[in-house]
Amino acid sequence: MARHAKPTESPDSEFRHDKGHNYYDPDITRTDPEYDDLGVVCPPHTTERRLISQIDLRVIPVLSVLYLLAFLDRTNIANAAVYGLATDLGLVSGSNQYNTALTIFFVPYILFEIPSNIFLKKLRPHVWLSGCMFVFGLVTICQGLVTSYGGLLTTRFFLGLAETGMFPGSFYLIEMWYKRAEAQKRYTFFFSSTTLAGAFGGLLAAAIGKMNGMRGYLAWRWIFILEGVLTCVVAIIFFFLIPSFPEDASWLTEDERAYVKARLQADQGRSAAERNISFKDVRTIFKDYKIFIGGFMYFGLIVPAYGYAFFAPGIIKTYGYSTIQTQLHSVPPWATAFGFAMIVAFFSDTLKHRFIFTLLPICVSITGFAILLTVHTNHNLEYAALFLVTSGTYGAMPVVVCWFTQNLGGHHRRAVGTAWQIGFGNIGGIIATYAFLSADAPLYKTGYAICIGFVCLSAASCVAYFVSVWMQNRSRDRAGRNLGLTEWEKTEKGDMSPDYRYQL
Fold first, then answer.
1. Confidence bin at 72 (pLDDT 50/70/90)
2. Using CA atoms in the order 305, 310, 316, 322, what is the torsion angle rounded to 10 degrees?
């Protein structure tokens, strides 16, 4: 942290004003105070780095484990299918019943994204997120006890309903703690819990496979039961651990809370956290065309992401592996994707740039799908292509979401915009569930072609978004900042305020 000479200001003042922003100074009278890169004075008893490390330990691990278990409970049906779920429940061979069971999850998951974030703000994160987590853990247990196709459809529907708030709610919460230039590593670590869930799910499924027949239950049932029980137990613990918004964080001192709010205000503008979100807010937000571009950026990546998550074990099994070996071979691509995503995030944060770091992973993903589409006799090369698919797709997704959501200013625009991007994007999950049909096995040419097309759609949307925010930044630079708006009006406008500059 750089040290600067103290700016001239009244000793009684708690804030200083510089270039249109207010900065909190908890002890303006002290000698040689420490300022961060935005000119915000850090509380005298700590440093910016120490405080951010404290926030990291309280926010990121808890939310990462939460989403890991959510993604695990959502996609473990792919591991269960390898152990005979379809046969045991009497699913018609060659039909699309399994695909329909995957699809029904997304109906409530998509529809209730925005309402969920509104409830999150009203009820506080630890109540809403831990409550939803306990419910989807319970539903996962029930999924292991169903005896018919109808029961499977019912549990998948309620699983989607219970999980609807996990991803947008967690992302929204993370957004309210970090500056844009430091957020990508945190977002990617959180988001990459999905890749860890895939790796963990494969290992766990391989171990649970040895429980086949225990107490009269087949292995696929034990996958749901044990992972559901784990989720419920963790949900109870997380009721006491999930962090709140900075304004309500009891584990920070008053001056630390003020400093966190001030640094975010300097970076992103005022948050308007004190007021509720109205229908008028929602309507106003959707008048901004960039909201729709952000949805398509994520939508294009969801198709290959869920296509792989739901069908990877089935694809790998066509390479000639046994049931247990199939589960084990599903682990390395997921683990590699985690490492690749963290490297992308590190350079993105270091260079304070997002656009290029969406396109590079997307190109890696396209390369992997192109190999799978054209190569069908070299199983080693096909398996290697899965590494490119997972690394590229899951490396680009957190950058896309972080870039878009961190460019939304204020609680109201960010809550609605985040839920919209995730909710609209997850429509791609419905397409993904029908991309890889059993009738297309083992080549799955249609599925791979669909994935390439949607990844290209995401790339085009990223280009369109980059051009949009670059042009708006230039327009605002030319117009200037002093347009006669009050601070309240700027707060209400969020990122539409003339003072706001988008990250590229």
1. very high
2. 150
